[in-house]
Predict the 3D structure of the following.
Amino acid sequence: MSDPRRSIPALDVLLASPAFQELLGRYPRERVVKAARSAVDEARAALTEGGRPDDVTGAERLAGAAAARLAREDVPSLRPVINASGVVLHTNLGRAPLPRAAIQAMVQAGSGYTNLEYDIAAGRRGSRYVHCADLIRELTGAEAALVVNNAAAGLLLALNTVAAGKAVAVSRGELVEIGGGFRIPEVLERSGARLLEVGSTNRTRLADYAGPVRSGDVATVLKVHRSNFRMRGFTEEASLAELVELTHSAGISLLHDLGSGLLMDPGALGLPVEPRAAESLAAGADLVVVSGDKLLGGPQAGIVAGRADLVAAMTSNPLCRALRVDKTTLAALEATLRLYRDPPVALAEIPTLRMVAESVDAVRDRAEQLAGRIGEAGVDSAAVVESRCAVGGGTYPELEIPSWAVTVSAGPDVSAPQLAVRLREGTPPVVARIEGDRLLLEVRTVLPGEVEDLVRCVASAVGNQSAADR
Ligand SMILES: *Cc1c(COP(=O)(O)O)cnc(C)c1O
């Protein structure tokens, strides 16, 4: 018997077939040829494994395989995801969704030229570091401010500027890992500074800092907000006010890594008290470092604010160039910061703040509407249940926000994890939460414009089998 692989048409015959001609009308020839070759390779492999020529070698079948490959290649790597996890600042899902004003500002800045580094009044070179600085000063009371790539970059730049080649005193209770392997001791080492650990894991008193600081060996004291865990029990730490007095009497600086970037009154969001940049600066910290995309609710950025001489030194540090932000980030950050001039507007317009602050009754209403829409789409298992959400992004580690979710099931034969896989395979992918043996769609983190897609994706996931559980 002849080799069944001979039944595969030659490439030029394939490309002349109507099905491939249709693909050639839609895609560049080179891409179609490549996809055709890979379809032929797959058909050959299928025949080697005992497949029947009729099932795999027809021009239409091969064109179908090529079309699927071409379509897969066109799915962007970075794409929208519906966050039904209930974690508002989900770092893996890109943290803060941006306010409308920030999106518009990014589109505008990205679409044309800007005065990024151009002094319009003088008609010559200006500085990119002036943008956002006035707003940050206004909102935090800082003398000066600098925006860099993220808070980690801000910390690296600040430490390199004030302490390269010198010692930095940090409490052993604050040598934390922020997330994704970002550890304070390692960043500090990369900044060229030397870590001087003081105190113990659970207790660090002012006296523990006093010896090293008075010895004249220490360039700065770094205080790190323990943003992603809590210490309880037999604990003690030196207060910011005590550290201000100690460092300033010794003529050295105090850096405060705050992380969250919360600018609003936490009470207005229903959140417990959290240290904020304005308070830390008012208490006398020389520099504070915060994130742009945590509770500030803006783009990924790091803000360093505080003493003008230190900010000027950071700006002229060559490392600053490597950590700088682009025009679209500055545009989005400026537009976000501007909203804070009117706190009720900030609360209404900044999605992360809105999600955190949304009343449990309002979330319940939205959950009931969503369950109703999912029911209308033919899924009879949708039910509204009480749940708990989290702020996330390494902030408010133990806080649970009372909330409401919609639970759905695809019947007794499909487990919640299997249904979660089907939801992630949708377009857009939906990231749900699994609690016990239930799958929950947390409504608090679903944006208003996403409901229609969510309903369609849920109906399709409940109704269809996915590749994963076939
Ligand atoms: C999140 C966090 C950082 C890092 O912020 P990025 O903007 O993600 O670099 C640094 N310090 C603290 C205390 C944090 O919570």
Notes: The two ends are 35 Å apart (CA to CA).
